[in-house]
Amino acid sequence: MFAKALPTAIIAYIIAFGDVIVGTVLVNSASKENRPDEKVDADVDRIHLVTGVRNVMHSFLAPYPGLAGPIWTAVTATVADRYSHGRRAMDSIFSGSGTFWVAGFIALFILPLVSFFKPFLPIGLSLTLVVTGYLCIITAFKQIQSASELGVAGTMAIVLAMHGAAWGLGTGIVLHILMERKLFMFSDETAVS
Asked: CA 55 to CA 40: how far, in whole Å?
């Protein structure tokens, strides 16, 4: 059972690591480019520490795998975008994210509101996944530096979507070794042409 779950666990770690990268890029780009009035310290070590403490508490009190990741990418993108419009749109990035979580916490206790929105939950989940996928693709493309990296990432994504975590991860590792570590018969210059 544990051996069958290992590829999914590795993919979950990669997704969580991607969450940290996407969240850091979103917050840094919103704060450094558009808001020099507030210094936002996006410390990756602190993100890991807080996420680890929260997940340990969840594992004993309220295990919920959906909250195991570091951030909610769609909400982070929304808050960062609004924050980038200046102090009149959002005074501080902390007040923006705090307002979202306080409103969500209050909404948890309003049963008629939750019951009203229940039919829309699949649509909300779909939109969250689409926005998260879009942001992950944009962030990943910014970090790709060669044609072979683009080919490996694209092929791995297709295999992952079509055949699952184990095949996608295996394909990514094999292609990385063959293509990016120059063990194959051509380099990036001949691969492009």
From this structure: 24
Contact 47, 70 (CB under 8 A): yes
DSSP state of 70: S
* Residue whose pair of structure tokens reads 């290992």 in the numeric block: 6
Closest CA to 155 of 134, 131, 179, 138: 179
Distance of CA 122 to the CA centre of its chain: 19
d(CA 167, CA 68) in angstroms, rounded, equals 23
Beta-carbon contacts of residue 29 (< 8 Å; ≥ 6 apart) = 80, 84
pLDDT digits (tens, 9 = 90+) for 110-161: 777 767 878 887 887 788 778 877 887 888 787 888 888 888 888 988 998 8
Residue whose C-alpha is closest to residue 33's, from 25, 44, 21, 45: 25
Rounded to whole angstroms, the Cα distance separating 157 from 18 reads: 14
Contact 10, 169 (CB under 8 A): yes
pTM for the complete prediction?
Answer: 0.63
CA angle 113, 89, 82 (to 5 degrees): 70
